Amino acid sequence: MDLQDSLLTFLRHFPRTDDTTLIILKGHLLLEEEINHLLHEMLANPAALDGLQINFFIKTQFLRALIKNETLDSILDAAEKLNRLRNRLAHNLEPSGVEAAIRDFVTGADGRILGGEAAPDQLLKRRIAFLCGQLLRFRTEYRAARQMLKTRVGTVKTKTKRS
Q1: What is the rounded CA–CA span in Å between residue 45 and residue 24?
Q2: Which candidate among 62, 119, 155, 159 keeps its CA 20 to 30 Å from the CA of 126?
Q3: Which neighbouring-strand residues pair with 113?
Q4: Cβ-count burial of 68 within 10 angstroms (0-12 exposed, 13-18 middle, 19+ buried)?
Q5: What DSSP letter does each residue of 87-145 carry, written as one string?
Q6: The CA-based dihedral angle spanning residues 110, 113, 116, 117, taken in that order and rounded to the nearest 10 degrees
Q7: Nearest one of 102, 123, 23, 20 to 114, comparing CA atoms
Q8: What confidence score (pLDDT) does residue 3 get?
Q9: Are 37 and 49 a contacting pair, CB within 8 Å?
Q10: Per-residue pLDDT tens digits for 70-129
C-alpha cells in the first residue's frame, strides 16, 4: 500500500465523532494496519506469515526486533497502551479505569498532556493520528532507503561486470 492509499484509508475510517469507544476501537484498527504495512515492507518474504493469527503485542515486539530505534520504541509503547485500552473495552461490559488509561495514553514521557488541553475525544484523535503518521513515515523512509541501496548495489554490480 502506498502513502496515498494509507492516507485515504485513514480519512475514510477515522471516526468523526466524540464517542471515545469508537475512536479507540477504530483507532486501534488503523494503527494495527500501519504496523502490518511496516512489517510487510521490512520482511523479505511477508507472504510466509499469511494466514497466521499474530496478535497486536507480538507484532509490536517483532517490529522492535527488526528495528532498533528509540523513536519507534516510543511509538510502539504508545501503541501497546492503546492496545491495552482497546482490550479493556472489548473484553468488559462495564470496563473500569478507562479515563485513567486514556490519560496515560495521551500523556508523554515527560508527564505533559500531548496535544494540549482539550476534550478526551480530541486528545485521543490527535494521539492516534500522530502515531499512524509516524508509522507511515517509518515505512516510507525504509522503502526509500531500501530503493537507494538497491540502486547503489545495482550500479556496483554493473560496473563490476564491465571490468
Answers
A1: 31
A2: 62
A3: 107
A4: exposed
A5: HHHHT-SS-SSHHHHHHHHTB-TTSPBTT-S--HHHHHHHHHHHHHHHHHHHHHHHHHH
A6: -140
A7: 123
A8: 77
A9: no
A10: 999 999 999 999 999 999 999 999 999 999 999 999 987 656 776 677 888 899 999 999
Triad 11, 16, 139: Cα angle to 5°: 30
The pTM score is 0.86
Cα-to-chain-centroid distance, residue 97: 24
Q: How sure is the predictor about 152, in pLDDT bands with cuts at 50, 70 and 90?
A: confident
Q: Over range 52-71, report the average pLDDT.
A: 95
Q: Between the CA of residue 111 and those of 42, 86, 105, 108, 114, what are the distances in Å?
A: 33, 22, 11, 5, 9
